Amino acid sequence: xxxxxxxxxxxxxxxxxxxxxxxxxxxxxxxxxxxxxxxxxxxxxxxxxxxxxxxxxxxxxxxxxxxxxxxxxxxxxxxxxxxxxxxxxxxxxxxxxxxxxxxxxxxxxxxxxxxxxxxxxxxxxxxxxxxxxxxxxxxxxxxxxxxxxxxxxxxxxxxxxxxxxxxxxxxxxxxxxxxxxxxxxxxxxxxxxxxxxxxxxxxxxxxxxxxxxxxxxxxxxxxxxxxxxxxx
Length: 232
Ligand SMILES: CC(C)(COP(=O)(O)OP(=O)(O)OC[C@H]1O[C@@H](n2cnc3c(N)ncnc32)[C@H](O)[C@@H]1OP(=O)(O)O)[C@@H](O)C(=O)NCCC(=O)NCCS
What we know:
Elements lengths: L7 H10 L4 E3 L5 E3 L16 H18 E5 L5 H12 L9 H10 L5 E7 L2 E10 L1 E2 L6 E9 L8 H15 L4 E5 L2 H4 L10 E2 L8 E5 L7 E4 L9
Bound molecules: coenzyme A.
Coenzyme A (COA) binds next to helix 3, strand 7, helix 5 and helix 6.
């Protein structure tokens, strides 16, 4: 199911994102490639870049104003599974078990925080947080993930909005920190980094990322909830 069918603004945003590369005309102004001069010297169109950008930014503003991050409700459960499955469909190191993980966490009462991103009432992204254990006995740490945004709407700030809202709510709940397994290049923008004193066994350490909310950093082996083993 295409969750976006019917949203003209979003379709327009998608169209803008797939615009062709820019070219520069002899006066230094930029044309979209489809607006370049013909070889006979006549121009098809001289739309200045300013016009294109103004429309593009307007569309992004429209989308941002419609983006709503909120807690999941029972009515979101199927949509969350669908969004998660779609986002991880082509992921190179996913076993496509992420929807099962979310269901297992929920069934075990371990879905501490489950936030959806919705636009025009449609769920387009999701993030889950669940408790982690640390062998030194430190409590109130949570794991981030899975996090998903529908592929057509990625790189537009939805993942960032979900994660920032989740981290903010965790802090309000009195959490002491958050940990995850993921790409350091993406998560460092939220302040996550590898702490050698926090160990997650079985993966290269650089992929284990933590974000303490207080000065004290735990020292020990970290474990995620058993729900992460779910395969069906
Ligand atoms: C990861 C994900 C949730 C990010 O959501 P998003 O809405 O695309 O993210 P944002 O728009 O907030 O941020 C996009 C930025 O992050 C970068 N980015 C996205 N995924 C990245 C990754 N895996 N590694 C490094 N950078 C990444 C983009 O290049 C972009 O950079 P820019 O702002 O410099 O252009 C989304 O890409 C997704 O659902 N991916 C598939 C599932 C997945 O990989 N989940 C995370 C598993 S660890």
